[in-house]
Structure formats: C-alpha cells, structure tokens
Write a structure and sequence with these properties.
Elements (H helix, E strand, L loop, with lengths): L4 E5 L3 H15 L6 E5 L48 H5 L9 H13 L7 E2 L2 E9 L4 E8 L4 E7 L1 E4 L21 E4 L13 E5 L3 H12 L4 E6 L12 E5 L1 E5 L2 E4 L4 E3 L2 E4 L27 E2 L3 E2 L5 E3 L9 H15 L8 H16 L4 H16 L9 H17 L33 H5 L1 H14 L1
Parallel strand pairs: 1-2, 1-7, 2-3, 7-18, 8-15, 9-10, 9-15, 10-11
Antiparallel strand pairs: 4-5, 5-6, 12-13, 13-14, 16-17
Helix pairs in contact: 1-5, 7-8
C-alpha cells in the first residue's frame, strides 16, 4: 500500500538516508508513497554543511551546524562507510582513514547526487508546529518558507524527524563567568583554532568535542590548554601543553578556580558540555524526551515513537556508528511504513525498549558500548534488505580506534584500516595529521595538485 504521504523534517545524514531508502525501492521497480522533505538550511548535509555563521543565520533562525574549520574525522571512515556506496565508488582510489570535513561532505553528497533526492527537498523551510489530528489520523505540520517569508501547512500520514541532536547547546553557568573578560563560547559556536594562537585556553567538558578542540588548539599553536571535567577525566596521554583538572568552581575576572584548589588565568573559555535533544515544533505528547544515550526511551527499535507509531525518529542515539546506522534505521522505517514490518502491541514494544535500555545500563567500557550498538544495528538489519556487511569487523576497528587514541592522542589519525565493503586498505595520507594544516579537499586528494594550485595563486598575484 503506497497511497499515503510521508513528511521528513531535516535533510542531514538521517533525512537523506530516509530518502535514499525510498529511492532504493524505486530502483527495484516498486511504488513508493508521496514524500516531502523540509530543510531549514539552504543545502543538504545537516551538520556537515559548514557555515562561518554562529548564533543565527541569514533569516534569523538558530544556526544548526557545529562544524568547524580543520575538523577531521575522529573515527575511521571505514566504520561509517555506506554499504551501497563505498569510498572507492566515490573517489576511485584509496584515501586515508581519517578524512577532513570537506572530504566527508563530498562523499555524503556523492551518493545523494546520484539520486533525485533534491526533487523531494524544500530548502530554507523550517517546521514550526505539529498537531496530530485524531479524526484524520494525520499530522498537520505548519512550516515557514524562510526565503518567501510565508507560512503554510501540510498533512502527512507518517512523520519522520531527522533533525539531529547536536545543534542546541547545553550551556551551564559558573559563578563569575559573566565577568570573564575574554571570549566565552560553546563548542557549537567554535569555528576554528586560529583565534586562539598563543592563548591560554580553558575547555570545560570531557566529551569528544572537548578532546578534539583541545588537540586542534594544541596543533594550531595555542600556548596552553586546560580541560576541566565534571565526573571523569578523558585520561589521554596528553602532550606537554594540555592538562586536565577537576571541574571549575568559579571565576574571578580572568582567573578560573578548580575543585582541587588550583587556579589559573585564561584568555578564553570553550564550553564543551554537550547538546540538548530539542524539538520546539513538537507538542509535549509527541516530543522525544531523552539525554544523549545509546538507546533512548520511548523509541521501539530506536525508531518508532511509542506513544504514536506514525511518528518516527532517526539518528537520535549517541553514536559510534553514524551513516550506516542511519541507513539501517531508514531502511527499517521504510519497510515499516510500507507495511512489511508489523510491530507488536504497545505492551510488547515497551518490553522490547526496556530490554535494550537494561542492556545499555549494564555496559561499562568503550568496548561494551561498541558491542551494544553493533548488536542494535544487527537487530535492525534482520528486518530489511539493507546490503549486509561485516559488522563484527567494524566493531573490531572501533575497538582498535579506542586503543590507538589511548596510545597516542596526537597520531591516531595517521593509522589506516581496511574497508569491510571493498577489502581496500586505506592509503596513508601524504602528510602526518599533526603536520597537516590544510584541510581542503584538493590538498587531501592530491598533494601535487594542491601545490600547483598554491603556486598559480602566487604567480597570479
């Protein structure tokens, strides 16, 4: 049965995965429902759609992206590779295992450009409000066309929320920080380490963004970096110039005081305390309420909303796996909407959710978390025809990645891994990561081409 309408909010990796899942059906000659996707940015890619802007965008909407210059993948690309569109398919040659943001965005675009996905997407359009109409068994969604400054409404039988959860900062308060004379920003507004050269930087938080921003500031010439943690330190073998201290208690002018009694003057503060799952367009009874975890409550199979099974969420988990997990979720969502997957009654769904949440609660180590998410994706893939791949080998790579970061936080990106999709061994990058200050696509793919490009600029000017 395909005479129904699907709305997708967000054209980042999750929303694009949903479009790709339906396109895979079309390629097999099968009918699909009417689909419309709405994206508040002017291009697809979600978080990977880099912008120099912070705060609000051109039309006054909160900036979605937290992407920054000089960001390189912090996990092997072989762990996020699409099963139906490999890095070899896209680049036609082996590349290194840790590409910079521009290269990964090019890869994401490569797959979706081969489709007619853009025909389904309306850009510069933000969802304002959702109602579920019991009498019609449909969602009424109110949108704003930002470019035209017009409000309109649409009706959908199924609504897929793919807006991500790394765009609304969680910003705590510390006594005295309002009088701190230097720059204070959340990681969401960090756009690169250039402004922090020769500066003493305080980073508050112990997440991946804290780790990555600390190392980037070190790499690009900050004088010192101090990471302040609430519960547990990151615990890496930091080089001289990076250290960890317990949580900040308060500030006095430019001096931060810590729980261990120490203090230090700083030039800037970068707050890396995570993000909120925020859905301002959803009413209370349709809103996913969760913190960052591997298995959010109220989502059957991590996808179908328990209180209304016509509402689906993609990519709401904390993530080791990314692109291929979003695909597995999208394929599951597609087959569920097409009636191929019959979900059980509410009580049985609740028991299944509780089972997975209990499993997550029993995890302790990074390896445990990897195994948990691997098991979750395996479970999803048993329901669909998403191209199979060796998840156990991917899990092994994740564990090697965790180990290599412990060994040396500065050079783990120089290691190479083998694709489970094509058996291609990654190429070592022509320049070690610590020495590579140019993250452009041209420089990454061809050193000679990049050098010639720079030379031509010199000659021209």
């Amino acid at each position: 049965m395909t005479n129904f309408k699907v709305g997708i909010i967000g054209a980042g990796p999750s929303g694009l995965a949903m479009l790709r899942a339906f396109e895979a059906e079309l390629k097999k000659g099968n009918a699909i429902p009417e689909i419309k996707c709405y994206e508040k940015q002017d291009n697809w890619g979600g978080m990977w759609n880099y912008t120099w802007r912070t705060g609000v965008g051109k039309y006054g909407e909160p900036i979605h992206g937290s992407m920054y210059k000089y960001l390189w993948s912090n996990g092997p690309k072989e762990c996020l590779e699409f099963a139906d569109y490999t890095f070899m398919d896209h680049f036609k040659k082996p590349i290194s295992s840790y590409p910079p943001r521009e290269v990964l965005f090019d890869y994401i675009q490569g797959r979706i450009k081969k489709s007619k996905a853009r025909d389904y997407i309306q850009f510069n359009t933000v969802a304002r409000w959702v109602d579920y109409l019991e009498d019609k068994k449909q969602f009424r969604v109110i949108f704003d066309d930002l470019k035209k400054n017009e409000t309109f409404e649409e009706y959908f039988d199924y609504l897929v929320v793919g807006t991500g959860h790394f765009s609304t900062p969680n910003m705590p308060y510390f006594k005295g920080i309002d009088n701190f004379p230097g720059a204070v920003m959340h990681a969401h507004d960090f756009r690169g380490a250039d402004q922090f050269i020769d500066k003493d930087i305080l980073i508050i938080g112990s997440s991946y963004s804290a780790e990555d921003i600390a190392v980037q500031c070190y790499k690009h010439g900050s004088n010192s970096i101090t990471i302040s943690y609430r519960s547990n330190p990151i615990g890496a073998k930091w080089p001289k110039g990076i250290e960890e201290r317990p949580l900040v208690t308060h500030f006095e002018d430019s001096t931060a005081y810590f729980k261990d009694g120490s203090s230090q003057k700083f030039d800037a503060v970068v707050v890396c305390t995570g993000y909120q799952h925020k859905f301002p367009f959803l009413p209370d009874n349709l809103r996913l309420k969760t913190k960052n975890c591997l298995y959010p409550d109220n989502l059957y199979k991590g996808v179908v909303f328990q209180e209304n099974t016509q509402l689906l969420f993609l990519g709401m988990q904390d993530q080791y796996y990314t692109f291929n997990m979003f695909d597995a979720q999208a394929w599951f969502a597609r087959d569920y909407m097409l009636g191929r997957i019959e979900i059980p009654e509410a009580e049985e769904r609740a028991a299944d959710i509780a089972h997975w949440m209990k499993m997550e609660a029993e995890t302790e180590t990074g390896d445990d978390h990897v195994d948990f998410q691997t098991a979750y994706i395996k479970d999803l893939m048993t329901y669909t025809d998403y191209p199979p791949f060796d998840l156990d080998k991917v899990a092994e790579m994740f564990k090697l990645w965790l180990e290599s970061k412990e060994e040396n936080i500065l050079n783990y990106r120089d290691k190479v891994y083998r694709s489970v999709m094509t058996d291609t061994l990654a190429e070592e990058h022509h320049t070690s990561w610590m020495e590579e200050l140019d993250d452009s696509l041209e420089r990454f793919l061809d050193e000679e081409e990049a050098d010639e490009k720079e030379l031509s600029k010199v000659n021209y000017y």
